[in-house]
Amino acid sequence: MSHHIKGQPRHQSTFFPEAIDDFVTEDNPVRVIDMFVDHLDLLDLGFETVNPKLNGRPGYHPSTMLKLYIYGYLNRIQSSRRLEKESHRNVELMWLLERLRPDFKTIANFRKDNGKGIKNVCRKFVELCRQLNMFDDSAFAIDGSKFKAVNNKSKNYTPTKVQAHIERTEKSIQQYLSQMDTKDGDEKDIDTTVSTSKLAWLEQRLVELKALEIQVNEHPDKQVSQTDPDARLMKTQHMQRQVCYNVQSAVDTKHHLIVEHDVTMTTDRGQLTLVAEQVQKTLGKQDITIIADKGYFSRNDIKATQDLGMTANVPQTDTSGSEKKGIFNKSLFKYDKDQDLYICPAGEELPHRRNVTEDGLEQKVYVNFYACRDCDIRDKCTRSLKEPRKMRRWVHEDEIDAMQQRLDDNPEISVVRRQTVEHPFGTIKMWMGSTHFLMKRRKNVSIEMNLHVLAYNTEENDDNNGDSWFDGGHQAIMGDLA
């Protein structure tokens, strides 16, 4: 006799609940999705077919499709084919869609055709959180992360790579020609059909590569991705190279919600002001605090954020390369703010001589010709036999110094940044799986990212105790919507 728990016979008749609503508990997340979408003005947000045409076959309402996608991305189901399958067997989706079962093509077309509306819904959720005062007294950590595109590295070409392919192909052609000449001189009757076919293929490939070389050299970024033209070859973790997109995000340090994000095709440098300014617009206030890593350090960017009323915290980078050259680093030259001069490692004063403009920055030049000429440790200061060592200082460097002092006095700022902004990237990549994006081109990739961010924000923890947002936070949303 078995002591295991036994199931019911599959052919036994059962009485299901009278309403499918009985299968969905009161605190089920699908109820939040349903109420949230029903309270949105989809026409105002930019969704198509809200007001359908009177002629032709009726279509699904945008609210139905939006609910399906929010549920899908919230439950790691991004594929349109898998969403179609789930609508046939998933009780929660049966409740949410009122037993509608759209086909995968309809599902995919909705996502492709309603990028503007989906982005506005993502912002609408952040706006709702702002109305609930969730971003009060918060700083915002900004960072970028590389997400793999639908483009294999072998289908990405740079000038160096395409030249290597051309040389290899030309070498192969020469080898086949040599082999065919050898066979022609042989008395034996040898079939050269295979060699001729291979040679023709190589010659055609060489023509394609030379056309590709022209295309690569004419491209502004000097690279061409054949599968996804918008994707770019970038350095990722451990200095590896991968064809990807660089997703920028701003995350609040209080609730770890993604307040603003953008899909870019460049590195982090130069993105600080663009992302931070969007955060200001989203929150409707100027005096915000932003934190970023040294990859964002740019004097123009930091000055711009401070001019916009923000407090920036970005570690300064040292790119002088003096230590590698075996000479004194700039950090060994001490600046005297009161006298506006530098004191070199030999104890000599370098006064301000003139101003110059380099790379769009107005800089003050400090130099002491006579002291440098007769200095005993000159060889440790400069490699030039004629020119003395010069110090350059940006005219707004005092603001950079104040920011660096703030970071030195509060070392926990960098820890807060890592704990805040790196968690969302790791979570979303885990949801995506090994392939990351499913769609091609930046426009479509941005739509995917909007859905992932919306799903992440709705499920993000309300505190650090592991309690889900839906364990309590959804009550506030439902109450506010009601």
TrEMBL record:
Domain Transposase InsH N-terminal: 19-112
Transposase DDE domain segment(s): 343-458
Pfam families named among the record's database cross-references: DDE_Tnp_1_6, DUF772
InterPro entries: IS1182_transpos, Tnp_DDE_dom, Transposase_InsH_N
PANTHER family per UniProt: TRANSPOSASE, TRANSPOSASE DDE DOMAIN-CONTAINING PROTEIN
Protein name: ISCps6, transposase
Naturally occurring in which organism (per UniProt): Paraglaciecola psychrophila 170
